[in-house]
Specification:
The complex is a heterodimer. Chain A is of the alpha+beta class. Chain A has one domain: Beta Barrel (Porin), CATH 2.40.160. Chain A is globular, with a radius of gyration of 23 Å. Classes of the chains: A alpha+beta, B alpha/beta.
């Protein structure tokens, strides 16, 4: 996440949040073209294997009360639309083409069409485009665009058919901006008794566009370079334990504005004005004049103990961009009754840092630097403090719901989320206010794979 | 004994006799094996455990027990034979299997076993590919180039 000190780019906004979908239509056409080629492939030898598959969700959500706060499941979604029965939160379509030449070499491409931030680049819909090489059965090297392997569900967040809920925990997964990684990963696995140990290292870069969550701000753009990390996972008898550490260095595309803001606050922090100096220092220290460094440490456990499915994850985010420093966690239990699965989940996101107080510097600064500069300083301090506060996440969610597997490829779901946000903790919402908030979200949808 | 009681008694006898007949016939027949897991006779694999097969068909391993690459094949997604195979192998139904594989496939981890049009194609392809492993719902004849490495009993 980058601080909202950025100017809106000069490029005009698309008319609708679906505009990026039009811009990536050629990617879909490419996949379809690849599919037609696939049908012509002769797989009789069993070596070459070209496939087109897909997944999707048609979902609607209604949030009560309808008080202007807009529900978002991911912070790369656009700001809210203040109406009932929105279909732009969960609905999405994914297409994947995969070509396995032999057991050692594979190519995969995947696009995901979904409403994103207004100013999201077209290529953000390209979720995967990589070559995988396996020099030996236990080794794999992937080069190209993959997913940063941060959490248990990080790379299948869009595939509703793969999990029981309407969406993964918003408290845990919603803030995560990076969904792709342009780079390299290397993994190795060992069979140890009845279990399997997997280790992976990954590194590369990505870019992100975060949807505006306030009416007077534009989307945020960030270049993440490098993004690197490692995972260690253990599977045995339905039990999976996964530990992750990763680090991301994010630089805003409007980095000059960030640096200028930092320098101005630094000057204010050094003024001999007792009221202003400590507050300016606190606001200055809430971000960095250099790259924003974010460190992720997480552990996740899932246990498929048929008919029960239990899952929990906990992560700690630290770094020099304080509004993203937080604890995130959730726990879920699901039980299957033939074709119906009932589930419940609790989630929590808690910012590590307290809100920044709104500065009131004008009267104190005017005698020192004059009324014009004092007004500018007041505007700068208030703006950055407000952006810091609206970037804090401090909320909890209780979820109950049901999934019905209509057949082997279609599932119907419904769920109820009760979300409580603390004061200065509503960053996951569009158009949130500093006040504490409580809302209920009712969702229904259909997931499918083909 | 009234007529009604006598009639009930004879019905009971008939039921017991029928039950006994079923049990005797079951004892007389060998245990029914539902799925035959096969590799080509050119393969170095002589036998497999159910866990080794689960690892291959659930994407947890890419190799046979001897460390060589394995190429598992499957029946079409909605084929009843595929449902019987996975039920016997893992205890899961097709919706659960598809949900599991959608997690692996769409995250780019690995592709599910390659589907073939039917058992005839499966037998033909496995016979010709030394790395292949497949399954049949009818016991293969001994001299067709296929070796049975595991027999899965029908799931209850």
């Amino acid at each position: 996440m980058t601080p909202r000190t950025l100017q809106r780019p000069a490029s005009p906004r698309p008319d609708t949040p679906f505009a990026p979908l039009r811009r990536t239509a050629w990617l879909a056409a490419l996949c379809v073209g690849l599919s037609s080629t696939a049908s012509a492939q002769d797989t009789a030898a069993g070596g070459s294997d070209l496939r087109l598959n897909g997944f999707g969700t048609l979902g609607v959500i209604d949030v009560l009360p309808n008080d202007g706060w807009g529900f978002r499941r991911e912070i790369d979604q656009t700001e809210h639309h203040d109406e009932h029965l929105r279909a732009d939160v969960d609905s999405r379509l994914g297409l994947q083409a995969a070509w396995r030449l032999d057991p050692q070499l594979e190519f995969v491409g995947q696009i995901v069409l979904k409403p994103r931030a207004h100013e999201a680049a077209a290529d953000e819909s390209l979720e995967e485009a990589f070559a995988a090489w396996r020099p030996a059965p236990e080794w794999e090297i992937r080069l190209g665009r993959t997913s940063p392997d941060l959490f248990l569900l990080a790379d299948v967040r869009n595939v509703g058919f793969a999990y029981p809920w309407m969406r993964p925990s918003v408290d845990f997964y919603g803030w995560m901006p990076a969904s792709t990684l342009d780079g390299l990963d290397v993994s190795r696995q060992w069979q140890l008794g009845d279990g399997r140990l997997r280790a992976k290292i990954f590194g590369g870069k990505t870019s992100v566009t975060l949807g505006a969550n306030q009416p007077d701000t534009g989307d945020d753009h960030g270049n993440v370079n490098p993004l690197w990390g490692s995972t260690l996972a253990w599977d045995s008898s339905g039990l999976t334990v996964k530990a992750t550490f990763a680090e991301a260095h994010t630089r805003s595309r409007d980095f000059e504005a960030v640096t200028q803001s930092y320098d101005a606050l630094n000057q204010l922090a050094n003024l001999p004005v007792p009221i202003v100096a400590p507050q300016a220092a606190a606001i200055r220290d809430s971000f960095s004049p250099n790259a924003f460094v974010t460190r992720y440490a997480a552990i996740g456990v899932s246990w498929d103990l048929s008919p029960w499915q239990l899952q929990a994850e906990l992560s700690r985010i630290t770094g020099n961009f304080e509004s993203s420093a937080a604890w995130y966690g959730y726990a879920s239990a699901a039980r299957r009754f033939d074709d119906v699965t009932l589930f419940t989940m609790v989630g929590r996101a808690r910012a590590s840092r307290a809100p920044l107080p709104a500065p009131n510097w004008t009267a104190a600064l005017t005698p020192v630097i004059g009324p014009t500069l004092a007004a500018q300083a007041q505007y700068l301090g208030a703006d950055i403090a407000a952006q810091y506060d609206t970037s804090r996440i401090d909320q909890g969610t209780i979820t109950v719901g049901a999934r019905w597997d209509v057949n082997a490829q279609i599932a119907l779901k419904t769920q109820l989320d009760v979300v409580r946000s603390a004061a200065y903790g509503g960053a996951m919402w569009g158009f949130s206010t500093p006040a504490a908030h409580r809302a209920s979200a009712i969702s229904a949808g259909m997931d499918f794979v083909f | 004994m009234s007529a009604a009681t006598r009639l009930l008694s004879w019905r009971r006898r008939g039921f017991v006799a029928s039950l006994a007949a079923v049990c005797l016939s079951a004892l007389a027949l060998p245990a029914r094996a539902d799925v035959w897991v096969v590799v080509p006779t050119s393969s170095s694999v002589k036998a497999m455990s159910q866990k080794e097969l689960v690892d291959l068909y659930m994407g947890r391993s890419r190799a046979f027990p001897d460390g060589t690459f394995a190429l598992p094949f499957d029946l079409p997604r909605d084929d009843p034979g595929r449902a019987a195979f996975y039920k016997s192998l893992t205890g899961m139904d097709l919706a659960q299997i598809n949900s599991y594989w959608s997690r692996l496939m769409f995250s780019g981890q690995t592709l599910p076993p390659q589907p073939l049009p039917g058992e005839a194609a499966m037998a033909d392809l496995v016979r010709r590919n030394p790395s292949a492993v497949g399954y049949l719902l009818q016991e293969p004849t001994a001299d067709k180039g296929l070796r049975v490495v595991l027999v899965l009993k029908s799931a209850k």
